[in-house]
Design goal:
Elements (H helix, E strand, L loop, with lengths): L3 E6 L11 H4 L4 H14 L3 E6 L3 H14 L2 E5 L8 H8 L5 E5 L21 E4 L4 H16 L1
Parallel strand pairs: 1-2, 1-3, 3-4, 4-5
Helix pairs in contact: 2-5, 3-4
The protein binds ligand CA2.
Ligand CA2 binds next to loops.
């Protein structure tokens, strides 16, 4: 079982910490990456961390993860609510998939309440801020230990 975790980030998450801190907090995506790597190190996990504004990049990394990763942590951002293509790509993976949202999508606009990705995700974290990524890594470590 691979100890590599793919951490995938969807559109506009490159703006984290630069705009709308009242919704998404003050940490940048670089801060998130450092925290994820620190947490992963504690559990002996290797992280490949990506962000793209393009759906096809995310699908490419998910397809790569099918053979290269032990697990996927994904914040699909707005694609959560629109992308059957990302759901299909995740459905082709056998590994654990954890979905992260920085904000509590259920407290926000109606159109954010539904996520296609949640049909595949083994767990969903929402509303814990950037810390949600660290929590997802801790959970992933447990799933990979048990698996
Ligand atoms: O809460 C989350 O993590 C979301 O996945 C973030 C997405 C949003 O479309 C989802 O409904 C919930 C948006 C990411 C955009 O991030 C920005 C960060 C700073 C400034 C502007 C956008």
């Amino acid at each position: 079982m691979s100890k590599t975790v793919y951490v995938l980030n969807g559109p506009n998450l490159n703006l984290l910490g630069l705009r709308q801190p009242e919704i998404y907090g003050a940490e940048t995506l670089e801060d998130v990456e450092s925290a994820v790597r620190r947490t992963a190190d504690q559990f002996g996990l290797t992280v490949r961390f990506f962000q793209s504004n393009a759906e096809h990049d995310l699908i490419g990394w998910i397809q790569e993860a099918r053979t290269a990763a032990g697990g996927i942590v994904i914040n699909p951002a707005a694609y959560s609510h629109t992308s059957v293509a990302i759901l299909d790509a995740l459905n082709a993976c056998d590994c654990p998939v954890l979905e992260v949202h920085i904000s509590n999508i259920h407290k926000r606009e109606e159109f954010r309440h539904h996520s296609f990705v949640s049909r595949r995700a083994d767990g969903v974290i929402a509303g814990f801020g950037a810390q949600g990524y660290e929590l997802a890594i801790i959970r992933m470590a447990r799933l990979l230990e048990d698996g």
